[in-house]
């Protein structure tokens, strides 16, 4: 487990060092890679740091529970000035005496629980809560890598859609010019102009939608890294990248791993253990307690009957406390703890189904995206050739303007589908490992190699390049 996210201290410092490199790269011509963004998120993300504090607070439950089993040493000291009037009956009548004196008392007490079922249950509950906090932090740590990758890829995908929409607009603008020239010489129609204009307006609407998506994704990313970034700062997906294999080919194998290693499921199991110990702790209210005590006391004039007298008292003994009646509070606390445990059992079952279903979804998406990438690459190639051929057919009078528009639309749709499949392939690979509880810093580094950090930034959008998969 030394290389799991949130566990490896040495790797975490490596990631933070890469984050410092990110700050320098912003002043250079190199784009900001996924690993650099992830390093910044480790340093800044409020959700991640809140999880760290939650973990630290939860780990303290173990020490709190253990304290109830350890000896308790207490010191009491009291000192005061007393003014009293003492009336005593006598043979010749009552006599009154005024007294003015100082008094003090002190005691040092050592107590060691011998039989305390409530303290024992509290200790085991603290142990379970500490394990729960640690497992929950591991889940939040791995979740950070997924959130960063999700926002990173969504921003890049939206940027790709902007570029595709702009390329479509340029193609349709050229087509409108051609329609205009054909209309002037009597070879075209007004309908051709309107059809092309409609496709141009649709591409413009798609560009606006993609810009909104890119802005939302970048805002999510900025909230995690605490640094001003734009989509142009991010390293784009490489035109070719190596296959990211899963070690196991069957869903059942990944499901079994998830049942054992998923930190979110583990945290819920520990929470259920803590709730069961809470039941036992509440039931202890019906049981007696036995403790061993030793006391050393010093007193002087602590009362009127001991006026001007000094006492030194040392005692050792056993103290037994037997509850008899507490107004029904103990029974109510037991019932409440049982209901809480039942609620957590149902939540555990619901979360288990949710994780397994999501794992199945991401496993299927990983396999289908791999096949889709190859298929859509063939579709892109054929659609590109079809567009060229269609333009020649229109020039020869064999086809009409709408055929060109349909061919170009299919070409750009194929580019969008290919880009979506490529990003889905990467994110599903990461999420399968996350849901199985196997996600590590090394996996994030492997995924980061699929992005081209060497791309030069010049403040302009790069031209659309036809994606390929190797």
From TrEMBL:
UniProt key word Mitochondrion: no
Extract the Gene3D superfamilies matched here.
Answer: Outer membrane efflux proteins (OEP) (1.20.1600.10)
GO CC annotations? cell outer membrane; efflux pump complex
* Name of protein: Alkaline protease secretion protein AprF
InterPro entries documented for this protein: OMP_efflux, T1SS_OMP_TolC, TolC-like
Subcellular location(s) of the protein: Cell outer membrane
**Mind listing the GO biological process terms from this record?**
proteolysis
């Amino acid at each position: 487990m030394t290389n799991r996210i949130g566990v490896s201290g040495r790797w975490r410092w490596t990631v933070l060092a890469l984050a410092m490199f990110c700050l320098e790269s912003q002043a250079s011509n190199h784009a900001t890679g996924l690993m650099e963004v992830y390093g910044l998120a480790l340093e800044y993300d409020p959700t991640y740091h809140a999880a760290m504090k939650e973990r630290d607070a939860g780990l303290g439950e173990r020490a709190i529970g253990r304290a109830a089993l350890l000896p308790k040493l207490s010191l009491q000291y009291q000192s005061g000035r007393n003014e009293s009037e003492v009336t005593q009956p006598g043979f010749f009548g009552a006599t009154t005496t005024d007294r003015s004196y100082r008094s003090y008392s002190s005691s040092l007490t050592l107590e060691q629980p011998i039989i305390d079922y409530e303290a024992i249950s509290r200790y085991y509950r603290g142990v379970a809560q500490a394990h729960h906090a640690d497992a929950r932090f591991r889940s939040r740590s791995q979740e950070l890598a997924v959130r960063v990758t999700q926002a990173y890829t969504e921003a890049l995908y939206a940027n790709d859609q902007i570029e595709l929409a702009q390329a479509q607009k340029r193609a349709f603008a050229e087509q409108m010019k051609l329609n205009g020239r054909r209309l002037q010489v009597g070879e075209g129609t007004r309908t051709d102009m309107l059809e092309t204009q409609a496709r141009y307006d649709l591409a413009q609407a798609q560009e606006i939608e993609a810009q909104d998506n890119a802005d939302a994704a970048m805002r999510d990313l900025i909230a995690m890294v605490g640094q001003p970034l734009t989509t142009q700062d991010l390293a784009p997906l490489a035109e070719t990248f190596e296959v990211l294999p899963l070690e196991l080919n069957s869903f059942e194998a990944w499901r079994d791993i998830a049942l054992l290693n998923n930190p979110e499921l583990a945290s819920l199991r520990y929470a259920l253990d803590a709730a069961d110990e809470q039941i036992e702790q509440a039931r202890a209210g019906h049981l007696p307690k036995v403790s061993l005590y030793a006391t050393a006391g010093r007193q002087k004039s602590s009362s009127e009957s001991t006026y001007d007298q000094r006492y030194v008292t040392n005692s050792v003994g056993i103290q037994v406390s037997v509850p008899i009646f507490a107004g029904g509070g103990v029974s109510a606390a037991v019932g409440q703890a049982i209901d809480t445990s039942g609620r957590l059992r149902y939540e555990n079952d619901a979360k288990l189904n949710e994780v397994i279903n999501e794992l199945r979804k991401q496993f299927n998406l990983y396999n289908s995206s791999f096949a889709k990438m190859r298929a859509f690459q063939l579709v892109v190639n054929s659609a590109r050739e079809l567009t060229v051929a269609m333009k020649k057919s229109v020039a020869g009078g064999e086809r009409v303007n709408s055929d060109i528009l349909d061919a170009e639309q299919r070409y750009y749709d194929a580019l969008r589908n290919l880009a979506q499949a490529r990003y889905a392939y990467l994110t599903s690979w990461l999420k399968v490992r996350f849901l199985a509880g196997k996600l590590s810093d090394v996996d994030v580094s492997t995924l980061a190699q699929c992005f081209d950090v060497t791309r030069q930034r010049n403040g302009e959008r790069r031209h659309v390049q036809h994606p390929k998969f190797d």
